[in-house]
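Memo to structure team: turn this sequence into structure tokens by end of day. - J.P.
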Amino acid sequence: MSYLKRLGRGARNLLLSPVWIVQLLTGTKSFADNPIIGSAALNRRGLHVRRLLLAHRLAAMRRAMLAGRVGADDRAALERDGFLIKPDFLPPDLFRALLAEVKAHRGPGRETIQGDTVTRRIALDPKALSVLPAVRKVIELPAFQGITRYVNSFDVEPMFYLQTILTHVRKGPPDPQLKLHSDAFQPSVKAWLFLTDVEERRAPFMYVPGSHKPTGARLAWEKAMSIAVSGEGERLSRRGSFRIDPAELPALDLPPPMAVAVKANTLVVADMYGFHARGLSDQPTMRVEIWAYGRHSPFVPWVFSALWHSTTVARNRVGIFWWWGDRLEKLGLKPNVWRRRDDISAFDEKTGF
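Reply from structure team:
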């Protein structure tokens, strides 16, 4: 029986090897799912580090093409720190209209739970935006579009959501987002336009200033991690989102993480290669924001995307991904952790869990 199992595994590997090779030229990051990316022998020879360096060099080239979208001071801050904080981002009258509109809106969305924390997302797709004119006006602002596209290094609209973070929803293990981590080996963008105040002890965004740079010390750490997780290790690190203990930061010449405690109407934009986390909350907390996310294939020199060039198509991405997750679950292939909620508000305190 063991011989037959080995034979079956060998046939599977032979069939999948062309897919694994092609994935080297994409943003595939999982050491657990791709045995080439997860090869300790190849990573000792620098496979992971070489992919990382090429991705960063191409991102820098693409950002240079998009530099006109962002002011010089903002570019300098992003280059120095890896993130940007813009208080009072919207004029007061527009922010008031935005807040009232979001509070009044109810519709379909999704929720997922990690540890004791629920994340709720309402997709800002064409259907939602048709009844949210203030939200649409905000996400289409050149300042919002320009800075998110610049950090992402692609002239493509990011995915936009209304997002709610609710902590201490139930007893459970700690939220894995509390651990400092890098999202992937490549630069990418996340942005938060906060609709509620964020206090230092109420689940703030945390970021290690300067940790977005592939310095010599960081590359040595990346190489050691790529070898270590190729065999075993923490689950999310093995999936390509490396976790780091704050005690390791001084060896990488990095400062402690900074808590981004801000008032409502503050925009925060960050390069998610930098180390970041969700901060602790010492009591049940609800945080609401317009949230943007973008990550594309790292190994191309151009800034456009033929697939997502159309705004209408781009704004339907979230629905497509959720639909695909539902189909996989229905076929028994993979559970969809994003559970559908048919009538929710971003400001609902009660969750489906």
